[in-house]
Amino acid sequence: MPDTRLRPARADEADDLTALALRAKAHWPYDESLMAVFRRTIVLSAADIEDHVALVHETDAMVDGVALLRVGTDTAELDHLWVDPPAMGHGIGRRLLEATAEEARRRGARHLMLNSDPYAEPFYRRLGAVKVGDHPVAEIPGRTIPRMAFNLESG
Question: DSSP letter string over 40-109?
Fold first, then answer.
């Protein structure tokens, strides 16, 4: 049985966590022109890790997932949730989402919002999110992605 755990991310892991996020994005059938945009826009910075709730998932001491949560007054924003492709399908994304939702709830948030990759929308729906609109992607004219919400008051 593998040894798994969630722990706070460290600022010195920012580059490795960004690389994990980009591997996860590249798992989907995006062409090189879109991946070039994603390499500029998908960044987990040391400052973000220090200033917000950032969690990593480890399996046998190897980081295989990351989530970053910004908590406001009654709404929290899930800015990142990435699972390394070899680890997909093992419940890591669910564990990270449940942990960030619980932390948001603990800090008083009533809603958890996120902009979903279109390929990840079914994952979020399975876990109880509803689509509340479309979010325009400034870096890619004409592209929108699903805006999703979880109600944290329902448990």
Answer: HH----HHHHHHSEEEEEEETTEEEEEEEEEE-SSEEEEEEEEE-GGGTTSSHHHHHHHHHHHHHHHTT-
Q: What digits encode the pLDDT tens for the residues 37-67?
A: 999 999 999 999 999 999 999 999 999 999 9
Question: Is 0.85 surpassed by the pTM of this model?
Answer: yes
Strands ordered across the beta sheet of 62-71: 4-8, 53-59, 62-71, 75-83, 111-115, 144-151, 130-136
Question: Given the DSSP bridges, would you call strands 75-83 and 62-71 parallel, antiparallel or unpaired?
Answer: antiparallel
Please check the confidence at residue 4 and state whether its pLDDT lies above 80: yes
